[in-house]
Design goal:
It holds the Pfam family Lipoprotein_9. It contains 9 helices and 14 strands. It is α/β, with parallel strands linked by helices.
Length: 280
């Protein structure tokens, strides 16, 4: 009888232990917070995967929501379809916010993609001939950035009061009689075969396997305060700007581990922004 009693006692203990373990696991699962982050394409997931793995240890589950253009992420954030997005420059984001009266805000800096002048025909800027044809992105904010790049290179001058958004009509001096061919930003690498040089953003250069430090780069944008508007950011709804989970996401992104992942993944076509411009 004692034996049976001991056996049943052991069974009871095991049942209680198993029940406790299941309850614990359910409690742990209940504590996990899912954060939906909007990204454009899949390229930036390479870096976010590093952040995602670290956040999982703190019961924060990152879920990617991918978009095919740069308009949808803001709309999705406004509508509550996503919690954060990490795919837009500060300048584009703030322009959208102002024009649409959106209640969105930046909560952290991520990367910047340096703009560059690339050529397959010439190895140096000084070799670029008079009358050369330059491919320039036709997106309004990038046209201005491209013209400022050419001004930094000493090739043209633009009106002084146009700030970061001059247009082709704002060119005041063009001593080398450069010609401009406006193309879709994504097509600027392909344009290299039909023009003398092309202005290419870092993300498109990387996608085309064109390296900022490579032979085809004849002039690169200096990453300094003048290009701060082109820093990519993590965005949230204004009402969520102090959400501790979202702050944790930003903190875990802005680490040395992430910086190394950026350097190893992009080889200079994207650069960690927070060590240069600050965390926010």
């Amino acid at each position: 009888m004692k034996k049976h009693w001991k056996v049943w006692s052991l069974v009871a203990i095991l049942i209680v232990a198993i029940g406790g373990w299941i309850g614990y696991r359910h409690a742990q699962a209940a504590k996990t917070t899912t954060v939906k982050i909007g990204l454009v394409g899949t390229d930036s997931q390479k870096v976010w995967d590093d952040v995602k793995a670290r956040l999982a240890k703190d019961n924060i589950k990152i879920e990617y929501v991918t978009f095919n253009d740069y308009v949808q992420p803001n709309k999705a954030l406004q509508d509550g379809q996503i919690d954060l997005h990490s795919c837009l420059t500060s300048y584009y984001f703030e322009s959208y916010n102002k024009e649409r009266h959106a209640h969105l805000t930046s909560i952290g800096n991520t990367v910047i993609s340096p703009l560059g002048l690339y050529s397959k025909k010439y190895d140096k800027l000084s070799e670029l001939p008079d009358g050369a044809t330059i491919a320039i992105p036709n997106e309004p904010t990038t046209i201005g950035r491209g013209l400022n790049l050419l001004q930094s290179a000493g090739l043209i001058k633009v009106k002084a009061n146009t700030g970061i958004r001059p247009g082709l009509k704002d060119i005041t001096e063009n001593p080398h009689h450069l010609k401009f061919k406006e193309v879709d930003p994504a097509q600027t690498p392909r344009a290299l075969t039909s023009v003398d040089a092309s202005i290419i953003n870092g993300n498109y250069a990387e996608a085309a396997n064109i390296k900022p430090g490579g032979k085809q780069a004849i002039f690169m944008e200096k990453v300094n305060k003048d290009v701060k508007p082109y820093v990519n950011i993590i965005a949230a709804r204004e009402k969520d700007k102090d959400n501790p989970v979202y702050k944790k996401v930003v903190d875990d992104y802005q680490t040395e581990s992430t910086k190394k992942a950026i350097d190893q993944t992009y080889h200079g076509s994207q650069v960690a922004a927070w060590p240069i411009f600050g965390k926010h």
